[in-house]
Amino acid sequence: MMGERTGVQETLFYGFSLEQHVPDNHLLRSIDRLIDLSGIREHLRPFYSTMGRPSIDPELLIRMLLIGYCMGIRSERRLCEEVHLNLAYRWFCQLGLDGTVPDHSTFSKNRHGRFRESNLLREVFEMTVRRCIETGLVGGEGFAVDASLIRADANRLRAVPGDEGLPPDATGRAVKEYLAVLDDAAFGASTPVVPKRLSPTDPAARYSAATPNQAFFSYSTNYLIDLRHAVIVDVEATTSVRQAEVTAQRRMIERVQQTFGLWPERLAADGAYGDAANLAWLVEDRGIEPHIPVFDKSARNDGTFARSDFTFDHENDFYICPGGHQLRTSNRNFTTPRSRVDKDGFIRYRARVKDCSECEFRQRCTPNTPARKIMRSVHEGARDMARDIAQTDAYVTSRRQRKKIEMLFAHLKRILKLDRLRLRGPNGARDEFLLAATAQNLRKMAKLMPLISLQRAT
């Protein structure tokens, strides 16, 4: 039988509770149990005036930003509209039914001012990491590091040649930030190579053709993750070049050790982090096993002997060629000792011309030069250690686990919709990357905490 509404009398009084209308399994309800933002006001107290009207509660702004990044709402205008209409968002922001949603311009005012001055967004991110450590989601034995390119808010068609520099009329917040980081190893000082093109609107963004698609301006988000549950333990924004990403890896490892006391036993990464200086820093300075492919160009494709065909005698400091002859750093005795290391950190080992001219393997060893020469890095010990680790089963495991960081980047771009930056300049990129990493950690905890609680109960 077809039903029909018969009541026409409106109820005089309504009883409505937001608490009852937010499902127990809602993502924001799980996140709300995991975060404690009560310390935000005390953290920001020195950055507020003691006079004037009360400001908008900074905890409300942070809660709204977390909603935006957790739910993939990229526009702050749209975020304000969604919080105004969505009951679950209102509940998470503690607004009630009649609470006023702040204007979107409030975010920009606080971001460019007290949020950056107080480093609040990093404080919120580190709060999630501490929570993950307390709940046992972070093992601390194995880390992985990698970087991913994120498109900058810069039009490639308006770019200018890099060797000409910025036009005289280029102004704005992003230009000032670009000038401020010219000497930063993660941005302007990362490489002496002049960029091919510069963006007048966001000059710190790097013109990159690293993907098969059309070249674009980008920043790099660098993740350092714990391999147990792929929790992001640190994040850093850099320009999109390899040297800057290696610098970010060192900064993140140092910061994690100082902030959380985490000293990993091994680090998994791809070949971009396998240069000799970085491997030596990991092994000699930090005592970390590098589960990293060695960046090595000694292989040959012309059929002649490669460096791996030569045997190094550590005790006597010379190479032995396949013909049984010695390659030494010098075949003469100098009265004044000379440095054997060149400016690039390599030592040259040379064979005698006489030995090479009479050797039966000359055509397979050095057909175009009078004597064979071998280049050995001063950090070759760390490189040898990385090569030895690459032959173990633990390396195979690390190589498989390293895919977790790629999954995080895919989640960042496809689910959180951070495939293009909305803010400009290094500070804008840093803010967005910190908030996105915070959202990913919170979503991770909301997913895993019920499972861990169940395991502990059983």
From TrEMBL:
InterPro entries registered for this protein in UniProt: Tnp_DDE_dom, Transposase_InsH_N
Transposase DDE domain span: 320-446
Region forming the signal peptide: none
Domain (Transposase InsH N-terminal) ranges: 17-112
Protein's recorded name: Transposase
Taxon lineage: Bacteria, Pseudomonadati, Pseudomonadota, Alphaproteobacteria, Acetobacterales
